[in-house]
Specification:
Length: 350
């Protein structure tokens, strides 16, 4: 049986899809343990607000992000919640052996059946030196074998290796028979086209690659071939949204994520600064260029501003689901932002 012919059931199509992408943000003045606790607490909070999915992202060598051991964190979040789907946004497959990913996520699916998403990306999720430390060789760092790795991963879940394949005798335990819902993630056209050709759901990183969103979605839909997973394309768009009671308050809360992004792009990653530190920062002309690229993909404001922004994004992209991320320094403000967005979407649906 070929690996491409068997897949878990594709995502249902709700009247409105709203999910959360979290990075277990380590705020200045806090610590890693607290960041991880807040990620788990946030998952509980948004579950009660009706959010559909809660994904955490794999990043490495970034002092402000604590979700590097993504599968471990997913296990804790799934155990602390009851109904929300929990997954990766994503696992960077070139950093891992496909068999290991199948065993990890097969374990999660076996423990939490029907609630685990496996979002797969092909970027390193870090700088080149750290990627080398993860992959252990320059050959692995330079290899362009993502489609082959993805095929192996799917085959470990389904037992779909051909008779002549060297891995035919291997059974992923757990893994085989316990496949989570599989997504491809991307910020350009490569994964968009691959997801379409394989008939898989696709999630686009609009929050840091806004200029590529529409071309990638068009490529995904035009390349789509029906599969056992999906009869038609299913696209999700991840977007940075920060909502507060007033536009001024929302812009104040958005300052830290913008400064953190500028520092990251300038090779100076750190913990998420406070709103006051961000407000006091004097941006250089080159930093302002970086900042402009960041704000292009953000929706920031009071409930009405955010409502208009989300409706425009959904209309423009024709996304089946939206996944929002909010890098906000104070946990209470973070939860409040998700509460306001849930109210906006709920009212629109009604």
């Amino acid at each position: 049986m070929d690996a491409s012919t068997v897949e878990s059931a594709g995502p249902a199509r709700p009247s409105h899809g709203l999910s959360v992408l979290d990075l277990a943000v380590v705020a200045e003045g806090s610590g890693i343990g607290r960041a991880l606790e807040e990620s788990i607490e946030l998952a509980r909070a948004v579950e009660t607000l009706g959010y559909r999915r809660f994904w955490v992202a794999e990043h490495h060598n970034m002092p402000g992000i604590a979700s590097s051991a993504t599968a471990v964190l997913i296990g804790h979040i799934a155990a602390a919640t009851t109904s929300i789907r929990v997954g990766s946004g994503g696992i960077m497959l070139p950093n891992h052996a496909p068999l290991l990913v199948a065993e990890q996520f097969g374990t999660l699916e076996a423990l939490h059946p029907g609630r685990i998403d496996l979002g797969i990306g092909r970027a390193p999720g870090t700088d080149q030196v750290t990627a080398l430390a993860l992959r252990r060789s320059s050959e692995a760092l330079n290899a362009d074998d993502f489609p082959q790795q993805l095929g192996e991963l799917r085959a470990f879940f389904t037992g779909g290796f051909p008779d002549t394949h060297p891995f035919r005798s291997i059974t992923a335990v757990p893994g085989f028979g316990d496949q989570p819902e599989l997504w491809l993630l991307g910020s350009s056209g490569f994964s968009a086209q691959l997801a379409g050709l394989l008939g898989l759901p696709f999630s686009f990183a609009h929050h840091f690659s806004a200029g590529n969103t529409l071309p990638a979605l068009e490529l995904y839909r035009s390349s789509f071939r029906p599969s056992a997973a999906l009869a038609e394309p299913h696209a999700m768009v991840a977007v940075s949204v920060i909502c507060a009671d007033t536009d001024e308050r929302a812009q104040w809360l958005a300052g830290p994520s913008r400064l953190a992004f500028v520092r990251l792009r300038s090779g100076r990653p750190g913990r998420l600064p406070s709103p006051q530190e961000a407000a006091d920062h004097d941006y250089s002309p080159s930093e302002r260029l970086i900042l402009d690229s960041r704000t292009r993909g953000q929706i920031v404001g009071d409930p009405e501003t955010v409502r208009v922004g989300l409706e425009a994004l959904r209309r423009e992209t024709q996304a089946d689901e939206l996944m929002i991320t909010a890098m906000i320094h104070d946990y209470r403000d973070r939860v409040r932002s998700y509460e306001l967005v849930a109210d906006i979407v709920g009212q629109a649906a009604a």
